[in-house]
Description:
By secondary structure, the protein is an alpha/beta fold.
Amino acid sequence: MSPRSIGVVMNGVTGRMGYRQHLVRSVLAINEQGGVPLSGGERVLLRPVLVGRSPEKLERLAADHGIAEWTTDLDAALASDDNLIYFDAQVTQARVKAVLKAIEAGKHVYAEKPTAETVADALMLAEAAAARGVKNGVVQDKLFLPGLLKLKRLIDGGFFGRILSVRGEFGYWVFEGDWQEAQRPSWNYRTEDGGGIVLDMFPHWAYVLENLFGRVTSVYAQAVTHVPERVDERGETYQATADDAAYGVFELEGGIIAQINSSWSVRVNRDELVEFQVDGTHGSAVAGLRNCRIQHRAATPKPVWNPDLPVTARFRDGWQEVPDNAEFDNGFKIQWEMFVRHVLQDAPFPHDFASGARGVRLAELGLRSSAEGRRLEVEA
């Protein structure tokens, strides 16, 4: 018996993230492997219905991948009973209105983060989905990175003893757009268009910290615009009104202190674009996108500070690589499969709109902390 299929309305897949990670590496990849496996042995295929503003881009995208359905009419796509799921990867400013339409149409909704620009709107979406009785989820892809999965394995195995602190470094140099083309769209650097690294990255840090280490109880942040002028996609100079770097200190329940720097104005001098160092009483670890290195307390050297003599030992040589011990699939694809099983079989899916709202709240508090120059409590 051939697997059945369900319609998935995908809005915003002409953008970089929506196209690469969600359409190609998730939905189409799932179909190539025969569909989402369900608990009873059945498989279900995903039938993408592409939605966007540009018919030319949609038609070209559909033709390139053999997709039969595309439209610029979101209402028409939502009106079809065959389409069970609505997915949103638009710019943040367009998300709330479209997601509300999908909820009102009775669709189960999966969305990129942040779910909204404000906590009020993020909570409104969570409440609307609950009132309508539709399943809802938000992308929290960093939890499925091989490096963080290894870190979670260490935590669950008690490797660290009592965890003391977490230090994170994320970012890279985004070119200004004048002498080299920028790697990110210009709206990312305009507050009026929903840009800013705090709104982009603090929702990530919220769920990473919450799921691995504990609830965030306070935040102190400094958000800055290091590069005030950039060049857009048309070659026109514009003022960067949004923050391109943020330096945050987060207190977690249990007394853990987390410091995370996020920047699009930093040059990379580490092994991966994001790295987290976790220090505990029994051991330490440094986890990136894929790799994780550890140093147990029994193997910890005893450095002595002496600026008059050169260092003869390479400190990194005293760290051990954590083995994979498993095959790691694409994190976006894994979460898509989880959400489909959540919709069809009520399988667990903790990454709902309420967790998305907590991420938006941390971003909002981070911006407010920076503006007011003070530490802010995060209510339970």
